[in-house]
Design brief:
30% of the residues lie in helices and 33% in strands. By secondary structure, it is α+β, with helices and mostly antiparallel strands.
């Protein structure tokens, strides 16, 4: 799964086959006591709401990992056109959706391996 490449590029790398749109989702809720503290801070002094920032960062990482898991399930080498969406499903909750198009490198045509400066280039083994 660590070998899955994510890219915001609009086009897949050359020599690839598109496998379809995939996504990863996470939905995290906040804590009542933390919410109260953050609301008081927001109304009185302003500034960054650190617990919400941390919750969103955690949600993005979880959704990204789930996207990579889905890509690996399809046998993909990567995902291009990756985007992040965050619709609000409930007050005090963060839903994060990371989506894009999975792709796989196409194996070279059967035949002798290509030569690079006199050395054979290894072909991909599935």
């Amino acid at each position: 799964m660590n070998g899955i490449t994510l890219s915001t590029g609009a086009f897949p790398p050359s020599g690839t086959q598109e496998l379809g749109i995939i996504y990863g989702v996470s939905c995290l809720s906040s804590n009542f006591f933390r919410d109260t503290k953050e609301t008081i801070k927001n109304v009185t002094v302003g500034g960054e709401l650190r617990s919400y920032t941390a919750m969103i960062q955690k949600g993005i990482k979880l959704a990204e990992e789930r996207l990579k898991e889905e890509a690996a399930t399809l046998g993909a080498d990567g995902v291009f056109g990756v985007k992040i969406a965050s619709p609000q499903v409930s007050a005090g909750a963060a839903e994060i959706i990371v989506y894009g198009t999975a792709y796989r490198y196409v194996l070279p045509a059967p035949g002798p391996s290509p030569q690079v400066h006199g050395a054979q280039v290894p072909q991909r083994q599935d």
